[in-house]
Structure formats: structure tokens, C-alpha cells
Write a structure and sequence with these properties.
single chain; 102 residues; 3-stranded mixed beta sheet
Length: 102
Amino acid sequence: MISILPLTRTAESAASTEEARTAASTGIQVMADNAVVESRIENLVIAKGYADCVAFVNDNGVNVIVAKTENGLADTDVAKIRDIVLSEAQVTADLIKIIETE
């Protein structure tokens, strides 16, 4: 996981170039936006009746980790979760990975 601290230091440092401060500020905003999307995905998946969910959004797509259901995730479960991700994140279906965990 990328730490926000170095970005914050760069964004706030008078010794940083304007370009570096702008890039750091952009990075901070992207991380904040991703955190909001992750939270919405997690809350919506849980609201659909799944016991627990953790979502990770990054440049490579979205990973959604869902607590194992009694009978395992069926195709319909995967479709529901994928639809949530597609509605909340700016990714295509091929960039979504859904993982079932104990």
C-alpha cells in the first residue's frame, strides 16, 4: 500500500518544485477518491446480504474480497458484485477481480 505521508510532505514543502507539489496533490486526491469508491463498494456489497467485504481500487483495476457464503459464490453472486463495482468505479469488467475468502 502506498503511504500518503511522502506525498503530503512533498505537497507542503517549500523546497519542492511546483511540478512536484502538483503531482503530489494529484496523488493525494486520487488516493482519497479511491478510498471513497472502495467504501461505497464495500457498503453496497454488504447491503446485498454478504457478511463482509473489502475492496481495493488501484491503477490495475478493482479487487473485491468477499466472505465465503454457505454454498460458495454462485455465478449470480459474482454478477451482483460485478454490477456494483461497475456502477461505482470507472473500470471495465475485465479489470474486476472477485475473491472469496474464509
